[in-house]
Amino acid sequence: MTASTTLAFKGTKEQEQKLKDVIVQHKSQKGALMPVLQEAQEIYGYMPREVQIMVAEGMGVTLAEVYGIVTFYSQFHLQPKGKYKVHICIGTACYVKGAGKILEKFERELGIKDGECTSDGKFSVDGLRCVGACGLAPVLSVNEDVYGKVTEDQVAEILANYKD
Amino acid sequence: MEMINIKINNISLQVPAGITVLEAAKYGKIEIPTLCYLKDLCAPGACRICIVEVKGNRTLAAACVFPVHDGMEVFTNTPVLRESRKQTLELLVSDHNRECLSCAKSTDCELQRLCVEYGVVEDTFKGIMRETTIDDASPSLIRANAKCILCRRCIAACKDQQSVSVISADRRGFVTQVECAFGDSLNDAPCVYCGQCIVVCPTAALMEKDDTQKVWDAIADPSKKVFVYAAPSIRVTIGESFGMPIGSNVTGKLAAALNRLGFDGVFDMNLTADLTIMEEAHELLDRVKNKGVLPLITSCSPGWVKFCENYFPEFTENLSSCKSPQQMFGAVLKTFWAEKEGIDPNNIFVVSVIPCTAKKFELLRDDEAAAGLPDVDAAITTRELARMIKQSAIDFVNLEDETFDNPFESGSGAGQIFGASGGVMEAALRTASHWLDKSFDVVEFKEVRGPKNIKFATYNVGGIEIRVAATSGLANARELLEMVKSGEVDLHFIEVMACKGGCINGGGQPFLPDSIRNNVDVVALRSKAIYDTAKDLPVRKSYEHPDIKMLYKEFFGEPGSHKAHEALHTTYIKRGQF
Question: Looking at CB atoms within 10 Å, which of A63, B256, B439, B524 has the fewest?
Fold first, then answer.
């Protein structure tokens, strides 16, 4: 399965310099790849091919080695995140309360899949494991706003709150 | 060495401290089945086939990683273990493409072998199958993940032996796949096509691109003259495909089998190994005398050449401009031989039999077309030729010896040793030293032979000091190149073969079961066969071979001539890695 990045990479010179500094700072350390990858994601917000190549080149490892790590840990994202990050809990409690259906509804409304970002960069959708708010199941958040006991009908309404 | 006392299956053994249970069992000639383990490659402790019972332990232990301790009691063959191994295998095959009837690895498959031995029922566990892909875009390799059992032997070969590391285990859990970054094809990743991943794969998740149909089609085409030649190492390895002992020299049977397949000409690639030496020794002396780019590095191994282009592009000027023996032979057949025999080169179909999967890529390279046509039309591995012989119902083992066709029916002993690490270097030194000093009478340059990772030697010939090194396995090549880069060593001539031990251990050589590979030094046996075969040849130096003399007299003039350059030399690309 190919996990490709749908949006064109828009990294800046400043970001690149920042990443280069991080690499210089860590390169001689043992086990430096992980902190460098974490900082790379801090800088770019996600780990597209271009960033993974910069890390591989800088750290003297291959792209396959970087990609293996990036895809192993769910904290690394291959896709950029939107201005509005929709996080839908699909932990056990939310799931039995229909969170799967709500996630699907968001996917349909936005025309993207779980983990992806809309082409205008506005919304991204991610299914999360239990967020610890089972009393509100099914629960989701858009950036800092939390929505509890959500139904499928409310999805369009929630999206409409984020116009700009 | 500290020795400790242990018991395996109630047999008392004295074994060195610090080794694993699997290694200790060898001291009592006790076999423990393995699957993800391969000696000298990896012991990931992942597959749970080598499990044993350790007295006092709550759980079963993986013998390939579990260390021995004094007073330990181990059992390797109990009802619990047999049942557990069987269940593990049933879980493995629950998610496995089980087209064993048509699978090219059938009867050579370690998973199949174990399943038969343990009486596995194929569909004990019914569940969803992983979504997998087939990557067949490269000219050399096919990766079919539906047959992958995630043992990670290919990853170890690619990363640890070859320092190429273009594959890794991506994602995790049920969706884990061994693949290139971003699911790219091996054709787009900086893979060097050495095929070492194929040789270590216990199943058919990795196989060579099968080109035998192309060859059958050409043979069946009456308008084509189909010529074939076999590389130096094939004659000492192909016997294994027919159950003969490792290291059997079957030159005569190989010629006989090729004659029976219907080729129009059956030749010996040892000869163009000699031709390579003529050109390369000339190039070496030219660079040494005229202060050219040094060290000169051999270019016969296409896996190494691509490695250089991908990972050390700053060294491409050091690569010998000589084509490989495979390509030189095609060039000779489509220029000199076509002219001499009055055959239109368009109607010549050239087949090489090689121990190498990267050779399938090499024939597609730019600047490998002496007659304006590809020098070589198809390259088939030792395994593919064995397949063709089996399809033809030829009783290989009982064939009477025959010879290759005249001319090109033989090469020198120097050409023969091309198949082992150090062989190209030694062959070149035999000719170069003669050219430098006619009285220098050394035939065997033993310092560059043998299993050491990097072999250094210095020779003084005709007042010139020549410092050389030979290495095999790309991780070793990387180490050597880093030494050259840092100035730690200052050399004139380097031989690199991509596969550890040389072509005898190439990615296209016959599959041998783990039970043999974990107990026998296969490379040493095949290597010995190469040197024994070479020693018995009547001519041992390339420049002395009558067909070499004939080729220069009738066609190329002299080594390094304009005509030789046009037909026998090539160019390289600075590819880089990303």
Answer: B439
* Secondary-structure class of domain B213-568 per CATH: alpha beta
Sheet architecture: strand order including B378-381: B265-268, B225-230, B348-354, B378-381
Enter the tokens of residue B75. 């059992």
3-state secondary structure of B80: helix
List CB contacts of A13: < 8 A, sequence separation 6 or more. none
User: Residue B334 burial (CB < 10 Å; 0-12/13-18/19+)?
Assistant: buried
Single pTM value for the model: 0.94
The CATH number of B3-73 is 3.10.20.740
Q: Is B63 helix (H, G, I), strand (E, B) or coil?
A: coil
d(CA B63, CA B150): 19
Cα(B498)–Cα(B306) distance, integer angstroms? 10
Secondary structure class of A86 (helix, strand, coil): strand
Are A154 and A96 members of one domain?
yes
**Do A64 and B167 lie within an 8 Å CB cutoff?**
yes
Cα(A144)–Cα(A83) distance, integer angstroms: 12
| CA B510 from centre of chain | 10
- Residues B343/B349/B350/B355 CA torsion (nearest 10 deg): -170
| Rounded CA separation B502/B426 (Å) | 13
CATH architecture, range B92-208: 2-Layer Sandwich (3.30)
- The predicted structure's pLDDT at residue B94: 95
* Chain A positions in Cβ-Cβ contact with residue B152 (cut-off 8 Å): none
Residue B285 has pLDDT above 50, yes or no: yes
A63 touches chain B (CB under 8 A): yes
B178: three-class secondary structure by DSSP: strand
> Alpha-carbon Rg of chain A, whole angstroms?
18
Contact predicate A48/A5, CB 8 Å? yes
Which one-letter DSSP state was computed for residue B209? Answer: P
Residue A153 and residue A129 share a domain: yes
Query: Each residue of B295-313: pLDDT tens digit?
Result: 999 999 999 999 999 999 9
Verify that A18 and A67 share a domain, yes or no.
Answer: yes
pLDDT at A6: 61
CB contact under 8 A, A49 and B182: yes
- Length of chain B as a residue count: 578
The Cβ-side half-sphere exposure at B453, using a 13 Å CA radius, reads: 10
| Residue B494, H or E segment | strand B493-497
> Which of the listed residues A29, A51, A72 is the one where a domain comes to its end?
A72
pLDDT at A5 over 60: no
On whether residue A55 sits in a domain, the answer given is yes
**Residue A43 is encoded by which pair of tokens?**
């800088």
Mind telling me how many Å the CA of A72 is from chain B's nearest CA? Answer: 4
Output the CA–CA distances (angstroms, integers) from residue A139 to A144, A163, B350, in the order listed.
Answer: 13, 21, 68
B 152-211: CB under 8 A from A:
159, 164-172, 175, 177, 180-184, 189-190
For A29, the domain range is 13-72
Work out whether the CA dihedral A78, A84, A85, A87 comes out positive or negative.
Answer: negative
Question: pLDDT exceeding 90 applies to what percent of chain A?
Answer: 85
Neighbours of B337 (CB within 10 A): 22
Q: Which residues of B touch A2 (CB under 8 A)?
A: 182-184
A residues 8-37 closer than 8 Å to B (CB): none
- Supply the ipTM of this predicted assembly: 0.92
Q: Which residue of B has its CA nearest to A2?
A: B183
Amino acid, res. B391: Q
Nearest residue on chain A to B311, judged by CA atoms? Answer: A62
CA distance B191 to chain A (A): 11
A64 lies within 8 A of chain B by CB? yes
Same domain, yes or no, for A100 and A64? no
Does the pLDDT value for residue B43 go beyond 60? yes
What is the location of CATH 3.40.50.1780 in chain B?
213-568
